[in-house]
Amino acid sequence: MTDLRPLSPAEAAQGLRRAGDAARGFLGTDPVTQNDALLARELTRREAQVYAAGGALVGCVPNRAQPRQAYVSSTSAGPEPVRALLGHLTTYQRRTSFVALVPEEGAAAFLGAGFAHSGVLPGHHYAGHAFHDLLVLVKEEPCRS
Amino acid sequence: MPIVTVRHFTEEDVPLRTELLREARFAANLTDFAVGSDDDGLQARQLRTITEEHRTKRIFTVCGAHGRVLGFAWITSIDWRAQCCELSFGVLPRDRGLGAFAVYAVHKHLRDELNMRVIVNQVYTHNTMFLSAEALEAQHQVRCERDSHTVGQWRTACYWTLSDEDIRQHEASAEERRRELAERIRERIEARS
After folding, report:
1. What does residue B58 show for φ and ψ, rounded to 5 degrees?
2. Taking a contact as any Cβ pair under 8 Å apart, which residues of chain A between 19 and 78 contact chain B?
């Protein structure tokens, strides 16, 4: 299992900058349109928790209206860091419901970790002079208590 | 066309931009406030832009090959909802011949990533660094007498906007020029062989 190391908002901003295009849209942020200070501020405002997972970054933003649910993101192309994040969130934070908003090309990491298609947000993200659809992927874990 | 990239302005860029703010032609062509400001004040002002002023002002660093800094661009009067902003430029003296490439790269970044649709340009009439006097006369949409006072003189400013349609026309005419040039080169090569 991939180890997770918690990052401060400033560390997370630097990590997202290094991750390049893979970090665009990470928990609703974008290193291309936001500088490091703004990334750190946005992550703080969203109460984001970001972790280094091997060479990738994973993170979550809690859904304030549904405390067992979290929005999750990953800069990895593979599912292993996502599995590690979900394991951490279910074990230590008793989360049972996970939502990922990702472009088509970013879906594999989540589908590989057991997420299922739930819907599409049309034209939700602007980049490269075009609006892009985002897939809504969901995974539910059984409630343990 | 040289490789010109646009990135966020960072803390490490502040000393270089401070030096540029005090340069004689920059002061005459844009604003001369820096000539009467101390280093600490100028530094604090730019750091505040990096850390706090994201909604109202953004500075970008324009780089050439191998990330070498060519100059800086900044947007002000930002109306996010109307997707409109004013764009200013300062190219370092050593790279001033590359100004046109820098302008194009920043315009593209503002449109492609920040989704700006109308970009307002302002140039004082005595400044022929980006556009010749004739080109400025042909380009401008608004002429404002005594717009600003820099380095002891009143300056007349020309304003114009660039819309998506203007950029499309510019790209089409640039492509046409490239095509004509390639055609001429091909004809010469064929004539020699």
Report:
1. -135, 135
2. 32-38
Do the interacting molecules here have an ipTM over 0.90?
no
Return the sign of the alpha-carbon dihedral for residues B4, B5, B6, B11.
Answer: negative
The letter for the amino acid at B78 is: I
Q: Which residues contact A65 (CB under 8 A, 6 or more apart)?
A: none
Among chain A residues, CA nearest to B59: A35
Contacts of A129 in chain B (CB under 8 A): 111-112
Q: Which residues of A8-42 are buried (b: 16+ CB within 10 A; e: fewer)?
A: ebeebbbbbbebeebbbbbbebbbbbbbbbbbbbb
Return the percent helix, strand and coil in chain A, to nearest 5. 35, 35, 30
The strand order across the sheet containing B84-91 reads: B5-8, B58-63, B69-79, B84-91, B118-124, B153-162, B142-150
**DSSP conformational letter for B130:** S
Radius of gyration of chain A measured on its C-alpha atoms: 14
Which residues sit opposite B161 in a β-bridge?
A: B120
| Preferred mutation among B10, B112, B168 to probe A, highest tally of A CBs within 10 A | B112
Q: At what angle do helices A36-45 and A9-19 cross, to 10 degrees?
A: 120
CB–CB of A33 and B114 under 8 A?
yes
Region of poorest pLDDT, from A5-14, A107-116, A129-138, B172-181: B172-181
A141: how many CB neighbours lie within 10 A of its CB?
A: 16
Direct distance between the N- and C-terminal alpha carbons of chain B, in angstroms, rounded to an integer: 28
Write out pLDDT tens, residues A17-39: 999 999 999 999 999 999 999 99
Q: What is the C-alpha separation between B128 and B143, in angstroms, rounded?
A: 16
